Amino acid sequence: MIPGPFLLYLGHSDDEIGIKTSRGLAAFRPDDCVGEWRHDDCPLTLGLDRIDAAEARRRGARTLVLGIANAGGRLGADLIDDALLAIEAGMNVASGLHQRLHDEPRLVAAAQAAGVQLFDVREPPRDLPVGNGLARAGNRLLTVGTDCSVGKMYTTLALAGTLNARGIRADFRATGQTGILIAGSGVPLDAVVADFIAGAIEQLSPARDDDGWDMIEGQGSLFHPSFAGVSTGLLHGAQPRALVMCHDPSRAHMRGLPHYRLPDLRECVEANLSVARLTAPAVRMAGVSLNTARLDTDAARRLCAETADALGLPCTDPYRFGADPIIDELLQWSATPRSATSTPIMTASA
């Protein structure tokens, strides 16, 4: 476990989506966040006190979380300099970037001298197995998406929270850096060698013999040319009984790829069900989760209703309006034997 409380780093970021790790911790572990560290040229905020490393340490922070993402996941000079200041103040440093803290000699030497730790969240477990596709017991739900960074983690946590509130055990299985920091465990799937992705999920979400659910955080999108591979491995390794489709209706194109259109919702639903059936023949789509953060309340509710009517599936923004419509659908048919056929393909167009 990475020691809290945390100082959340925004640095010089100007990309709302790029600070999703810091934002996720502020949303789901608010009591563990003492403030945000951002420079004068950063226009973003999490609504926390703006403080630096020295002040954060005085307030009891034990770890600086470099909760930002940049192209290639690199440790720039500014990140390294600020991390050194945090170490000097007596804090550990945690990062989910692809470039490891432990690969930067200055950070390693400073941490050793100060007696603090470096946590590389994107370090996958050793000796992961190759997926075998053998049927295993238990209820598993996997969130999937039309694109990356559309709210799969928020949706998964909201669904798990709603099940737990109803007295049904639900365990969140993290597969990305933000989810791992929130949950305290998981597998950073985008750092796993491709041959072992399915096996990593089989290990992360093993067979279970109760009536509870493993709620597995999705990654990427089958329609994103850069990240479709991780999505495919997840669908096969998860052996999901249920999928939930996540979508950001404000997107004009795939994230980072203006030359690629967003897929039609129906097209994405059909593709994900088709890929999942390799290891989960009876998989069903339990609903649609819309990220309506950029819409006003009336427009958001109207779009959820229109999407539900078009696809014949419950639709909500689980973080904003609650996950009950999807959970109601899930529990209505979850007692159906696994040999049952999957949800018929819808006929209306979204």
UniProtKB/TrEMBL annotation:
<protein>
    <submittedName>
        <fullName>EBNA-1 nuclear protein</fullName>
    </submittedName>
</protein>
<dbReference type="InterPro" id="IPR027417">
    <property type="entry name" value="P-loop_NTPase"/>
</dbReference>
<feature type="domain" description="D-glutamate N-acetyltransferase-like N-terminal">
    <location>
        <begin position="52"/>
        <end position="124"/>
    </location>
</feature>
<dbReference type="InterPro" id="IPR011669">
    <property type="entry name" value="DgcN-like"/>
</dbReference>
<dbReference type="Pfam" id="PF07755">
    <property type="entry name" value="DUF1611"/>
</dbReference>
<dbReference type="Pfam" id="PF17396">
    <property type="entry name" value="DUF1611_N"/>
</dbReference>
<feature type="domain" description="D-glutamate N-acetyltransferase-like C-terminal">
    <location>
        <begin position="130"/>
        <end position="326"/>
    </location>
</feature>
<dbReference type="InterPro" id="IPR035402">
    <property type="entry name" value="DgcN-like_N"/>
</dbReference>
<dbReference type="InterPro" id="IPR035086">
    <property type="entry name" value="DgcN-like_C"/>
</dbReference>
